[in-house]
Amino acid sequence: MESTNIAAQKEQVQIVWKKRPLIISGPCSAETEEQTVETAIRLQKTGKVDVLRAGIWKPRTRPGSFEGIGTKGLPWLQAAKKATGLLTAVEVATPKQAEDALHFGVDILWVGARTTVNPFSVQDLADALRGVDVPVLIKNPINPDLELWTGAVERIDRAGIKDIGLIHRGFASYGNSEYRNAPMWHLAIEMKRRYPELPFINDPSHICGKRDNLLEVAQKAIDLDYDGLIIESHIDPDKAWSDAKQQVTPERLGEMLNEIIWRKEDVPTIDHATLEKYRQQINHLDDELLQLIAQRMKVADKIGAYKKDNGLTILQTNRWNTILEKAVAKGEKQGLSKEFITKYFDAIHMESIAHQNKIMND
Ligand code: PEP
Ligand code: MN
């Protein structure tokens, strides 16, 4: 009996793991049994949620705020699962937490952003999970370091975990920002490129830190071909014991999921010839851009030689300012953002400096 139950559970986990979009929702923290079970029931009523998330151990930046209900909350998740059939997911940061979560039948574990930053903690978790058949989602580290994120994937992978997924929850940045954690989409895109086969989930809640632009961030993730979303929900968001500002009611979550325009990487029935034609144009233009940039660097080499012969510095700040200002003005007229032009010209300039440096010092 026991073993057939386990087999059925594993099968359900496999089905959900492959579902697209994969939708995970639930409170930042499990607070009481009623809150946990009622959230699950109301989420299940939306018909759109696959997995109930709930924080049991909360890694708080500063001591003194609610640090999670602890192991006693795990049976509440079991009760919620029994009432709804939703799978359950919990953040674990230590071997003991992983062991407790598995003991109480949690279906999916996730490694939080404050754990991914620490290779010792990730390795301890990986060692504890060796030989266990449970999917593990790995959040990006708090700081924008893809090597740490990659390292965490490698450690969990080497422990033999076969179902690994990634959660993009944004990166802490210093100073004011419209986000609680800056999405830095380019980093997420690079991680997706490194691991195209791993489910890639977006966490608009921790990116936004407030309810207002959850939908916008979720839509952007879907437009970028993410495999799913993890969004915090609470039966009474303003009274939540943690992350109150960013949580929404299960009903609001349901509405948001309805409002999202779900796109796919490929729709077999469309006319691929049109897309192919545009892609060829893009490829052609990219080739031309590369050739032009290479030509530009050849000129930089000549300038480097000239500066060397005449004892001039490589960096000529005034000249560079003029180039940049003109480019920004021209670019904006052509519909290119100031941010893009600045990044683009910075990259070109750094490459040009590297070329001149080589000429001068070879
Ligand atoms: C959470 O999911 O509630 C959480 C603590 O997330 P993160 O690790 O992304 O801060
Ligand atoms: Mn949270």
Automatic annotation (TrEMBL):
It comes from Arachidicoccus soli. This is chorismate mutase. Signal peptide: none annotated. It is an enzyme of class 5 (isomerase). It holds the Pfam family CM_2. Keywords: Transferase. Coiled coil: none annotated. Its EC number is 5.4.99.5. GO terms for biological process: chorismate metabolic process. It comes from the Bacteria. GO terms for molecular function: chorismate mutase activity; transferase activity. The keyword RNA-binding does not apply. Residues 269-360 form the Chorismate mutase domain.
